[in-house]
Amino acid sequence: MKERTNILKNFRELVLRYLTAADSFAEGESDCYISAATSSYSVARQTLNTDADALVLKDDNGDDDLAGERGTTVSRSKMANHLSFLHVRLIILLSFLAGSHADRFTSDLLRRAVQFSRKDNVIVSPFSVREALAQVYVGVKGSAADELHSELHLTGHSKRESVEEFRRFHQILSPGGGATLKIANRIFVAHRFPVLLKYNELVRKIFRTDAENINFLNSQLAASRINKWVATRTEYLIEEIVQPDSLDGDLRLLVINAIYFHGKWEIPFHPKNTDKSDFFIPGEGPVKVDMMHGLINVLYGRTDVLDAHAVELPYMNSNISMLVILPNNPNGLPKLERNLYKVNLLTLTSEFEKEKILLDLPKFKIEFKLNLNQPLKGMGIQEIFRDPDFSDLTSPGECFFVSEVLQKAVIEVNEEGSTAAAATMAGISTKKRKPTFKVDHPFLFAIKDQQRVYFVGRVRRLD
């Protein structure tokens, strides 16, 4: 396992160096890195049990490995001709490699959020938290930077290389026409700490945002400003994330992170089929909830590691889907959560086959807000809350640290979609018995695409 991780890390860092060098056409660097990267890729491909189609780099003639598994050097002119093509190929590959790192962050964040929240229903956005903290990483030096680099599972030698994945993701990935994904990330810095121009230039280029100075002493105005910014960025789907009494003059740096998702099912549920059905709450018994019903053709299967069954429900005209993981034991959610680190949510259904199933899924809506300071400290991110060196963000001076990391997430699941595309239960043939996936007890869910987990959460209680 350690050898596998080191090979992945080494290859990914070399490819990142190539991409950075290729962007600026630094003399000699691009050829050097693409040669080293493809040589490392050859070792990785032979060592790792990975889909070859996801790893192969081909030129326009269909030749395997543009630079060759022989490790030959690519000429500058040939690299220029294939630059755009290589960027797409390599980013697909980087997405695959980055996913394994980010997924560890996902399972750990959910576990910590559940631990530090007393609420039954929890939802967090690992992708959004990771991106927000990557912005903090760009501004710190020393042990705090090393800690973030490690715990966020970043790769690359320089800061620019380490966060390059976020620029690339923003550049080529989008959720698609059937899904609405609104993300708001911003660092608010106390007004007496001027933000360095070089810092804002970097985060603007990489993350498409800025750090902003604000007077926390005027808590009413500061809260209004922060909430208005978040509401605007989320089209007023999230209108408030801070309250005036939560802001004071001791605040130094506030990381605000808000995300909203709404998607239309590829195969919508017909509202006429929704009825009142039992949902079992451990220790309390059944409660009546609005249960949607449908016959759908989706990825469905069993995961023995989690002692559960899972189904992946795609959203219309989108590469995003909802993964629902249902413990086989109605009381099995705590065990499932403990074992979540053993699986990769991004690839959990890769061995599943599409199958027509009878699906019973409850309607639910979750609004969840959490101060992430303690969960992040429990994950090993501690120095940014103590006395870090923020000299890459602001001029050196008095003690400067992260005061709070806040996240608010909203999700709603219902029948919404094109009614014309729906099939009513009256038209369902039951001559051949179909597998049934009945979500009538606590479950875990994730909203994801092939590279990122946007949300992960659990539902314990419905009413």
Automatic annotation (TrEMBL):
Transmembrane region(s): 83-102
Q: Name one Pfam family in it.
A: Serpin
PROSITE patterns the record matches: SERPIN
Domain of life of the organism in this record?
A: Eukaryota
* Gene Ontology, cellular component aspect: extracellular space
Alphabetized UniProt keyword annotations = Membrane, Protease inhibitor, Serine protease inhibitor, Transmembrane, Transmembrane helix
Q: Note whether Transferase occurs among the keywords.
A: no
Molecular function terms, GO-annotated: serine-type endopeptidase inhibitor activity
Report domain Serpin positions.
Answer: 107-462
Q: Which InterPro entries match?
A: Serpin_CS, Serpin_dom, Serpin_fam, Serpin_sf, Serpin_sf_1, Serpin_sf_2
To which protein family does this belong?
A: Belongs to the serpin family.
Q: Which PANTHER family match?
A: ACCESSORY GLAND PROTEIN ACP76A-RELATED, SERINE PROTEASE INHIBITOR, SERPIN
Protein name in UniProt: Serine protease inhibitor 42Dd-like
